[in-house]
Amino acid sequence: MNYQQAIQSCSPTKQKQECFQRRQEEIGSPVTISLQSEFEQLTLDTSPKLDPLTNQHSGILDFIDEIDQEEKFKKHQSLSLQKDLIRRNNKNKSNEGQSSPHSNQSLNDQKFKYIKELWLQESPIQEINKQVLSQRVISINEEQYFKDLQSDNVIGMGVYHSNEASPQMYFEPDIETDIYISSLIDSLWGNQIVSRKLQKLIESGTPEQQLLIVQKLERISPQIQKDVFGNYVVQKIFDSCGDVKLKTRMFNKLKTHFYDLSKNPFGCRVMQKLIEYSQGKEDIQNSILSQLVQNMRSLIYDSNGNYVIFKMLESYDKSKMEFLIPIVEESFHYMAQQIYGCKIIHKIIQQYPPNFIANLVKQSIANYSGLSQTEFGNYILQHILQFWIPSPEKTRLIQLVIQQFYQLSINKYASNTVERALETLSKSELITVLNWLLFRNQTQQQFSYVATNFVQLANHQFANYVIKKFLILIRSINVAIHFKLLNKESVGVLSSENHFARQFQLKFKQANEFAVFWRNK
User: Fold this and answer.
1) pLDDT digit string (tens) for 24-72?
2) Residue 122 domain-assigned (yes or no)
3) How many distinct structural domains can be found in the chain?
4) Would 517 be classed as within a structural domain?
């Protein structure tokens, strides 16, 4: 059946009139039909409706629609794409409607040509980046990122760009990472959990995350270095971050604040870590020294600055720290009373030859009585006795200690100096000390009888350590002590006292066995 025959079959006939009357009876009056069609248009219901016509007439109308579609398809065939190029939605394949006419191949070629020209144009791409970035939501403090956009290197999570005035690479992150890192940095103050999270990101995070953390920390430096937990994050940068550029970047940010950080209880920890990082790097060492050398006296008198100076003595070549010796000589009396001040003096005595520290040794010997009886000063005398080469100054110090053997031995701190002095004595000098110990001292009486210095010191809570050290040094002449202590009173006292009883019983047993062997021989 062709198109003309289908039209003729649809002309008004008696049969069609009867069908039309039956339809009106079933669905209502023409007014009802018009209202129904208007309602369908208002509700935009484009779904197919059930045709009330018979199956025969319905098939004729469907055939007419197919012919119309075929003519439309032929009309727009020149503008349509090939079927293999048409994108289809697999999810809605069953309900897929008629596709709209597509542009022809020549139009697509023009589009591709335009895109290629836009891609290869010489105008800087940052203008396009600004247009794109202007459409996104700006996060906290993010406007600062867009001020100096001058690069077109796009990497991973954001954009790297640099400023002509500053050669440092600057990173433009994606907004999710920016918000996450910003929230961590904002809540870092006094927060141990956040501090550990940031340290873990610095240690095992991506290079982009590490760079973003450094950028955020730069904005709150040097205040964050003085925070109780924030200082650990900055230390982790110098300790575990693999990017040398990031370490150099943070170093340059803190460069003008070295003195202020050195006097802060938490900032001085960052300075010590920075000094460790500068080992073997001459330029960084010189930069640190240039910032601190003018304020070295102030740091010596500061309880936190002492830590920084001691770390420099440990890490730097001693030739770089020679300027510190005259300053320490001026502040000797003050530094000798402090725990880290005396450590600085110890380190200088250990590292430098006699011609550099002769004045320090002379000052120590001149004040030996006061230094030996203080908590930290006695360590200075011990270092001189241990590390100082044989010299008239060292011999003089030993003589002074032996002359006040009893008074220094019963002091809590000075007894340590006496022990160190005994280690430097020769065998003949030890015998001289033994003769003095076995002398019955009538001026210092602690018992009902006249006891020897040995018995009195052995029963003292501090001096007994001196006697123990002395017995270790004179093992070969213990038999002399045995013969001198044969009186029952001395042996009974030494065996019953808590401080020396155990040590004496062992030594007395060894001396007794040696004496028996010597007699039989």
Assistant:
1) 555 555 545 555 555 555 554 444 444 454 455 555 656 667 777 777 7
2) no
3) 4
4) yes
Q: What is the DSSP string of 308-327?
A: HHHHHHHHS-GGGGTTHHHH
Alpha carbon separation from 329 to 282, 335, 348, 378 (Å, rounded) = 27, 9, 11, 17
Residue 425 binned pLDDT confidence (cut-offs 50, 70, 90)? confident
Burial of 427 (0-12, 13-18, 19+ CB in 10 A): exposed
| 464 plus 394 within the same structural domain | no
Domain with 451 in it = 425-521
Per-residue model confidence as pLDDT tens digits over 143-196: 443 343 333 333 334 544 455 444 455 555 567 777 888 888 888 998 899 999
Q: What percent of the chain has pLDDT over 90?
A: 17
So what's the pLDDT on residue 260?
93
**Contact present, 328 and 300 (Cβ < 8 Å):** yes
Question: Helix (H, G, I), strand (E, B), or coil: what is residue 235?
Answer: helix
Q: What pTM was estimated for this model as a whole?
A: 0.57
User: DSSP character for 90?
Assistant: S
Across-strand partners of 169? 162
> Do 168 and 288 sit in the same domain of this protein?
yes
CB 242 within 8 Å of CB 279 = no
Task: Quick: pLDDT tens for 246-299.
Answer: 999 999 999 989 999 999 999 999 999 999 999 888 999 999 999 999 889 889
- Domain shared by 482 and 406, yes or no: no
- CA distances in angstroms from 212 to 126, 157, 159, 199, 207, listed in the order given: 20, 11, 11, 13, 9
Domain boundary among 369, 402, 421: 421
- Closest by CA to 365, choosing from 352, 353, 349, is 349
> Angle of helix 207-219 relative to helix 230-240, nearest 10 degrees?
140
DSSP 8-state class, residue 34 = H
**Quick count: other Cβ atoms within 10 Å of Cβ 330?**
11
Structure tokens at 152: 């077109």
* Interatomic CA distance for residues 328 and 341, integer angstroms: 9
- Token pair recorded at residue 125: 């791409």
Computed over every residue of the chain, the mean pLDDT equals 72
Same-domain status, 259 and 159: yes
- What are the residues whose beta carbons fall under 8 Å from the beta carbon of 416, sequence distance 6 or more? 378, 379, 382
Of the residues 391, 421, 451, the one at which a domain ends: 421
Q: Which residues contact 150 (CB under 8 A, 6 or more apart)?
A: 126, 161, 162, 163, 164
Q: Which two tokens stand for residue 276?
A: 């460790």
| Assigned domain for 217 exists | yes
- 154 has which bridge partners? 159
At residue 162's C-alpha, the angle toward residues 157 and 168, to 5°, is: 95
Q: Give me the numbers of helices (H) and strands (E) for the chain, helices first please.
A: 31, 3
Same domain, 165 and 271: yes
> Do the strands 158-162 and 153-155 form a parallel or antiparallel pair, or are they unpaired?
antiparallel
For the chain, helix, strand, coil in percent to 5 are 70, 5, 30
CA angle 97, 103, 106 (to 5 degrees): 155
